[in-house]
Amino acid sequence: MVPDMLKPILLFAAALCTGLSLDADVLRLKGNASVSGAILAEKPDQVIVDLGYTVLTVPRTAILTMGKAEAAETKTPSPAGSESAPGPAKNGLFKNATGLDSERSVRELVNQLGQSVVQVRTPSGLGSGFFLNEDGFLITNFHVIESETQISVEVYHLKGGQLERHSYKQVRIVAMNKFADLALLRIEDKDAPKFAPVVLGDADSMAVGERVFAIGSPMGLERTVTEGILSTKTRQMQGELYLQTTAQINPGNSGGPLFNMRGEVIGVTNMKMTFSEGLGFAIPIEAVKYFLTHRDAYSYDNDNPSNPYRYLEPPSRIQKPEK
Predict the structure, then answer these.
(1) Which residue, among 236, 207, 281, has the nearest Cα to 9 in the 3D structure?
(2) 81, 179 in Cβ contact below 8 A?
């Protein structure tokens, strides 16, 4: 078994690092886990590995084997279970990018993606989201729906060349992860049509300085598009890695998609630096795929120990002893 103190670190490392150099050192660990990076030092009781964005100390008792990466491992499978091959993911919930689309202008892409981005409303506020498939499954931030069960989703359907807004009120919480700030919802209105989904891309393949854009409803200003560049892919905040972008992100953008210039989602926008401009942040799409593929572990169920809400039974009345 992998020591408990290492589990969250290894899980986080695996979720965010998919590329593997042939020169990298690979440590096979107990519990069917592995770590790849540059070995900085080997001690009798531990091995110190440089992961690129942090340094990890691995106890020798947790290591099964050590060696160089093989040619067949030039790309490590994402823990999200998403296949590198083109087409829909095996679970059918979302579709991966084929990698064959060419870059286009923001103007062209916005017209194509207009129906895929939605507003998520609750009694206490609003945020954004986007469809994963035609059946009404959509992603938003956990903090957008936190402590709420009355949720509505406003969708923009294309009719006659114009986008018409329609509000759906039968919305179910499918899964949520408070710590990753992600929530999976589903529209269950009887007369709901097929929805226009997005394609999930690959943030790891992006280069710093590439152009990106966001669609959302900042401050309630629906259908707002902001463009910028990818400032960094490894901005560490509170133990998590985020994509940093100059595309303007404001309250109301939360849960919306961050696109590359092929129209693929590479992140979910969730925060900005207060009292500053051009410092927006997004959850990398690799972490989103991991959440989606393991959604059963985060299902919205009071019997689920990972459920962030705990509804306790009311205390029973105290029975007075008979005289």
Answers:
(1) 236
(2) no
pLDDT at site 229 = 96
Count of helices and strands (H, E) across the chain: 4, 21
Bridge partners of residue 44, in order along the sequence? none
Phi and psi at 88, nearest 5°, equal -65, 150
Position 284 scores a pLDDT of 95
pLDDT score for 299: 86
pLDDT of residue 36: 81
**Please, where in the chain does CATH 2.30.30.100 lie?**
7-73
**CATH code of domain 7-73:** 2.30.30.100
HSE (side-chain half, CA atoms, 13 Å) at 17: 22
pLDDT for residue 286: 95
Question: What pLDDT score does 316 carry?
Answer: 63
Burial (0-12, 13-18, 19+ Cβ within 10 Å), 316: exposed
Token match 């905040």: residue?
A: 237
Q: Which residue has the tokens 């009719």?
A: 159
Spans of the chain, pLDDT less than 50: 1-2, 4-22, 71-91
Query: What is residue 19's DSSP assignment?
Result: B
Which part of the chain has CATH 2.40.10.10?
Answer: 199-298
H or E segment at 121? Answer: strand 117-122
- CATH, domain range 199-298: 2.40.10.10
Active-site positions read 143, 181, 254
Residue 128 and residue 140 in contact, taking contact as beta carbons nearer than 8 Å: yes
Specify the residue for token string 């340094």. 55
28-79 pLDDT tens trace: 887 777 778 888 888 888 888 887 667 788 888 888 888 876 533 333 333 4
**Which strand (E) or helix (H) includes residue 111?**
helix 106-113
